[in-house]
Amino acid sequence: MLDFLKSPIAALQDFYILTGRALRNLFRGPHYVDDIALQMDTIGVGSLPIVVLTGFFSGLVITMQMSRALSQYGAVGEVGQIVALTLVRELGPVLTALLVAGRNASGIASELGSMKVTEQIDAMRALGTDPIQKLVTPRMIATAVMLPMLTIVADFVGMVGGFIIAYFTLGLTSSQYWTNAYQSLEYNDIVQGLLKPFVFAFIISLVGCFYGLRTSGGTQGVGLATTKAVVVASVWVFVITSLLTRIFVNLH
Amino acid sequence: MPPTPANPSGGDVLLRFENVGLRFDEVPALEAISFDLRAGETRVVLGAAGSGKTTLLKTAIGLLKPDSGNVFLFGEEITCLKENQMFELRSQVGVLFQEGGLFDSITVADNVAYPLVNRRTHEAPAEVDAKVVDALRFVELEHTLEQLPSELSGGMRRRVGIARAVVSEPPLVLYDSPTAGLDPITANTIMALIAKERDFKNTANLIVTQRYQDGQLMANFRYNRNSGRLEPVSQNGARGDGSNPTRTIFMVMKEGRMVFEGAQAQLEASRDEYISKFVPKHS
């Protein structure tokens, strides 16, 4: 009767097994340092331009949108606070995570998927290498290190974008904007702003690896795995940010 | 099942299947497969696409776990071993995958060096390099060292795959459809290399293929070191005496079952409709 639940539950179970193995490999060798560095470069440095661009424009538009609402209360001077809080708490982490999900969850899934369908994963196992140790764990570590850093960059560039609007069109002084932005941020905001990308990183990398390693059925399967990885990773980013925000808002 | 052909020198059992069965979603992929592969033996597995040949090969090194029965590799039961316990055993088996299975992000030289570097035997880099060059020279591709697998043709990729399979000089080599999708000339080159490897290093082989000619070549030709080419084992072509100098045994698979096991003469004499389809009429 509940047959339709069988395959999603089995998939969830497989995902937990993969996660467990990938985490366990953190504490035992061999560690593929070269692969970690390579992945940090692709995931971190490679995503930098798009993250900077997106961060900048989101700061820009938040400031423009908010300035109208704030002007009704004569509080345009507070725009720095709005930009800082929205970016650091929510938009910075989520936008960066979505970009990295689109760029890297898909990249990981298609790379591992192609390796699966061309029997490279089997060859790896046959040659005595654990594919999870060699492929999954380095990607997980690299994303967990790089995503919080990318988020910091996005937050900062976003505030610069906000500053440009505040300075040139709203007529605020530089110290008005930056002091207001800086003083509004509390310890709690920074913690959730950095904890979120750290959690997203595991979701994005592991979902990408999971669908990549499950690929079957040739090149068509690779395409399917890639699409699924992006969609599932993005949905989970939203679900988890809601949960974490709920927790942190209550803490405050 | 026909009687197992005479096995004059015996030899250690390197690989043993005991009543092995495996299902994919209730569809049987292997059913009651039993055989022994001894040192110095060559077993050629024939069968139509989807008859379970590749599954058999993957089960042999524990890439797939059987649902029933036991697989022994070098005398050790691998059915109950965990993945990381199997790595040591697997490193003593060379495998050529269907399309070569080369890692396409690293160079040909790194691909061939992979089994050596990965075993962490702490061989000196110079020694590894020398072995890699030797292995590539064996397949006559020593000029491709720094190329990426994607820059090579299908036949060349498979030759690199052979070099990678044999670089660590394993006593047992498994070949998954080494000639599938290749033109007859390239296919012959590949099979000649496999025979050369067998006669140089005296390895045991399990060759999975759809082409009867592959097995025919393995059974009737030997690599001559002096002339550097393949030569027929018996000059007058008399095979009827039942001798089997290359110790080549044929197995035929149909829908996951083994329907034939025996020497070439028995295979050619078979009246079974499915089996005789693999044997060209004129021979």
User: Uncertain runs of chain A with pLDDT below 50, 5 residues or more?
Assistant: none
Helix content of chain A: over 70%
Which structural class do the helices and strands of chain A define? mainly alpha
- The count of strands of chain B amounts to 12
Low-confidence stretches of chain B: 1-9
Q: Helix-strand pattern of chain B, N to C?
A: EEEHEEHEHHHEHEHEEEEHH
General shape of chain A: elongated
Find the CATH topology of the largest domain in chain B: Rossmann fold
The number of helical elements of chain A comes to 8
Largest interface: A-B, 14 and 23 residues
CATH architecture of the largest domain in chain B: 3-Layer(aba) Sandwich
Which labels suit this protein?
heterodimer; A: 252 residues; mainly alpha; 8 helices; 87% helix; B: 283 residues; alpha/beta; 32% helix
Describe the fold and architecture.
The complex is a heterodimer of chains A (252) and B (283). In chain A, 87% of the residues lie in helices and 0% in strands. With 252 residues, chain A is mostly helical. The model of chain A has no long low-confidence stretch (mean pLDDT 91). Chain B is built from nine helices and twelve strands. A six-stranded mixed β-sheet of chain B has the order 6-7-8-3-11-12, with helices on both faces. Chain B has a four-stranded antiparallel β-sheet with strand order 2-1-4-5, covered by helices on one side. Chain B is globular, with a radius of gyration of 19 Å. The chains are: A mainly alpha (252), B alpha/beta (283). The interface between A and B is medium-sized, with 14 and 23 residues.
